[in-house]
Amino acid sequence: MKIYTKRGDDGTTGLYGGKRVSKNSIRVQSYGEIDELNSYIGLLRSYGSLKNIDEQLKIIQNLLFTIGAELATPSDKMYSPNGKPKISCLLSEEKIILLEQWIDEISETLPPLKQFILPTGNVSSSTAHVARTVCRRSERTIVTLGEIEDIRPIIQKFINRLSDYLFVLARYFAHLANEIEEPWNPNE
User: Fold this and answer.
1) Residues 66-117: pLDDT tens digits?
2) For the CA atoms of 26, 30, 36, 42, what is the dihedral angle to 10 degrees?
3) Which residues are CB-neighbours of 121 under 8 A, at least 6 positions away?
4) pLDDT number for residue 2
């Protein structure tokens, strides 16, 4: 199979089910930003983080692929006539609870946060902050898509919680490197 098809040369792309849409449609933007987020998480993994963190990030990457597939599916193609989802709905409330558990476990190792901090630190910490901001942008795009098309609300919920996880992870990587968090100083 060739990697190039030339079908997108006209500025359109195919959604799941065959419908063609503009490459700048809000739906395409939504799963494109999920792909970008997934790539930043892959970059974060490439730095050789701890085994347990790497496993968490791998689970997240797989879930992001599932979310991307779901976002690439028009509402009318999401369910079969008997009401069952056509795409495996791996994203569930249990996955959000798992994220919350990871956030709590990591948070227990960190000093309490008393003020806003600058998104800086070592390479792993800074990359986690970039992933967090891409996650927030993705969330905004998904909210916009949800205002005009049906998407499962759990996607927004997961992405919102994922940005919290990435923030805590950024702090954790800085903490492991004995980096001092730089507080935001509005007077500078």
Assistant:
1) 999 999 887 766 666 666 665 656 788 999 999 999 999 999 999 998 889 8
2) -170
3) 129, 170, 173, 174, 177, 179, 181
4) 73
User: Cα 35 to the chain's mean position, in Å?
Assistant: 8
CA–CA separation, 49 and 37 (whole Å):
17
> Which domain range does residue 135 map to?
22-73+91-176
Residue 85 lies in a domain: no
The CATH number that applies at residue 69 is 1.20.1200.10
What is the Cα–Cα distance from 3 to 65, expressed in whole angstroms?
A: 19
CA distance 111 to 101: 18
**Domains contained in the chain, number:** 1
Indicate the pTM of the whole model. Answer: 0.89
Which one has a higher pLDDT value, 74 or 165? Answer: 165
